[in-house]
């Protein structure tokens, strides 16, 4: 059993095992299920993610009309070939957006670690897939690696926007994705932890300020940037760059920042972008009367 | 799961479903109080829709959740939502009061992220269910031997108890056992416990 990232890395290094393998072993121990059962369950999650990306890339529109169609715009842009950043990163962004657009439309997704942040992990996975050509099994392992880091965050800090802001949701998701990318690309367990630390450091302080209390604006685009952040941090870690602050301490800092965040910035639609003139106007249009003026 | 929020949608659906399964049947009416972030954003997050979906016994991935309020109304369920101003310990708190002409049930649940929930109060009994492990709730008569009888069945089935609490409001009356276990509990074990003399009701909380 591991309780934090340091123990996870230590265990992986001393036993010469991948982080994904340790997560599977822990699941076997905790749930009493067989390896096959656990792999099958994760395979089902992977299928849900695939279907969500596919659906989002065909174009969806949310009930409120606030989000939808951006994944398609970005894919069309990539196909034209004149993009400035990079193909894999934009593909990841587009697939993260696709997933979150499906989520905003109340479609079926897999919470990774939450629904509001469900785009980052599958977005990066399916983009990196094109580059690294993993087997189905390796794609499932990607999810276990992400899960190991998500497990540590959920148990030592929080993955809830209402408790810790967006840093706890998209921040955690991006950290999980970065670590999983590193393992799939052949990086060491230490590099996985460095990637998670570098990602999360750059998500610290991110507030949860959903316009009209919907999981749409700015959630969809935060998933986009979470995916981009994860991709860049993974590359940095694979290049040998390390975080001066250890991963567990970054997670702890995230938790403490979340605790000191005012409730207006923790998923209450009372502050931040939700409280901007346009945010309030959209809210009034969608619900008739702003939330705080209702009975 | 169905979007858009694991804590405000999936978590709310789970809170509703636990209330439904503890109640044992479809309620005729429901009064739901939302606190904190739930109170401020339940419309946008579909928390109301999801919680009612749970009351209709829908799982978190059941697409019928989207139409749950209309379906509940069609089934004759009266639903009221109350936005509470009170500050609770957890920002995502829901108090669910459900009932019909035969009885009612009150439960307080918190949604802690990623779809995980904790039940912190049931019919006035305080409890602490972490939500990290499968658990069973046993409503029983506050008599000697009632607890031993339940734990004996679990021991016979080779199920280890990780955490357990017993709570009662009055000596000798109704009491509640909250038992967290390491392994998932099969239906046949629940049936066995249900048949014990002082046991009134058995419910499974997490899969």
From TrEMBL, chain A:
**EC assignment:** 4.3.1.17
Q: Where would I find the Serine dehydratase-like alpha subunit domain in this sequence?
A: 15-274
Top-level EC class: lyase
**Catalytic activities:** L-serine = pyruvate + NH4(+)
Sorted alphabetically, the Gene Ontology BP terms of this entry are: gluconeogenesis
List, alphabetically, the Pfam families matched.
Answer: SDH_alpha
Recorded GO MF terms: 4 iron, 4 sulfur cluster binding; L-serine ammonia-lyase activity; metal ion binding
What metabolic or biological pathway is this protein involved in? Carbohydrate biosynthesis; gluconeogenesis
- Give the family this protein belongs to, as stated in its UniProt record: Belongs to the iron-sulfur dependent L-serine dehydratase family.
The UniProt keywords, alphabetically, are: 4Fe-4S, Gluconeogenesis, Iron, Iron-sulfur, Lyase, Metal-binding
In its UniProt entry, what is this protein called? Answer: L-serine dehydratase
Could you tell me the superkingdom of the organism this chain comes from? Bacteria
Quote the InterPro entries the UniProt record gives: Fe-S_L-Ser, Ser_deHydtase-like_asu, Ser_deHydtase_asu
Its needed co-factors are: [4Fe-4S] cluster
Instruction: Please give the coiled-coil regions recorded for this protein.
Output: none
